[in-house]
Amino acid sequence: MDFIKTRKKMPPTKNQIDFADRLRKKRLDLGFSLQEVADKVGISKVTLSRYETLDITNIPSDKIERLAEIYKTTPAYIMGWEKKEAVKEFKITVPLLGKVACGIPIEAIGDTKYITIDEKCDYCLVAEGDSMTGVGVNHGDLIYMNKADNLENGDIGAIAIGDDITLKRFYYYREQNIIILRAANPNYEDQVYSGDMLKDVKIIGKAKFLTRKYYK
After folding, report:
1. Do the beta carbons of residue 126 and residue 96 sit within 8 Å?
2. Per the structure, how many domains does the chain have?
3. What is the 3-state secondary structure (H, E, C) of the chain?
4. Is 78 exposed, middle or buried (CB count within 10 Å of its CB: 0-12, 13-18, 19+)?
5. CA nearest 26: which of 65, 67, 76?
6. For each of the chain's 216 residues, which pLDDT tens digit applies?
7. Which of 48, 104, 132, 148 could covalently link to 38 via disulfide, CB atoms 3.0 to 4.6 Å apart?
8. Which of 44, 79, 114 is the last residue of a domain?
9. Residue 139: which CATH number?
């Protein structure tokens, strides 16, 4: 595998693409920002971004070693020299709270079950419907969620509407005192809440966007 000399006009190899994907996935899975990792490695945020987008492919070995240390893996895994990650696999058990509507809000939470997964999150929900297909969430997908009671505009979260729960992009406009829940499918209209309706709207989580096909 040659990461040392790559002419600019040559398309990236599959190994190089996989290398960049591993760097990006490891950072996102652990919840680090570009700036946080860059500071730990001792490089700029721009440089790290260039690592992840294949703009730089001749990465010094000491930086590879430091990245592996931060990502709790090995340089061999980062470089793609081993098929499986040489790091202790971890499993966690989290609540599977029920179904979350990707469409019209539906009654969501039934009996709480527990499932064992290999990603860090606070709980899981199962997607119902097709309103979030534009961001890769399909009917039957398992959505990994973190607890949250507030969201930034544009974040995708689980929103309780009374006794129902829906998964949507969240927007709050303070001056107009309205909340808009927006689908990622043009076939669905915005859900708008204002005035007294706002007391029935409650944020319960933020999607990590680690979806896995679970059941239909």
Report:
1. yes
2. 2
3. CCCCCCCCCCCCCHHHHHHHHHHHHHHHHCCCCHHHHHHHHCCCHHHHHHHHCCCCCCCCHHHHHHHHHHCCCCHHHHHCCCCCCCCCCCCEEEEEEEEEECCCCEECEEEEEEEEECCCCCEEEEEECCCCHHHCCCCCEEEEEEECCCCCCCCEEEEEECCEEEEEEEEEECCCCEEEEECCCCCCCCEEEEHHHHHHEEEEEEEEEEEEECCC
4. buried
5. 67
6. 443 344 444 566 777 788 888 888 888 888 889 998 999 899 999 998 888 887 777 788 788 888 888 888 887 777 776 544 444 456 788 888 777 776 544 344 445 688 888 778 888 888 888 898 888 788 888 888 898 989 999 899 999 888 788 999 999 999 999 999 999 888 999 999 999 999 989 998 998 866 666 544
7. 48
8. 79
9. 2.10.109.10
CATH number of 61's domain = 1.10.260.40
Active site residues: 131, 168
Same-domain pairing of 205 and 117 = yes
For residues 43 and 143, state if they share a domain.
no
Whether 63 maps to a domain, the answer reads yes
| pTM for this prediction | 0.55
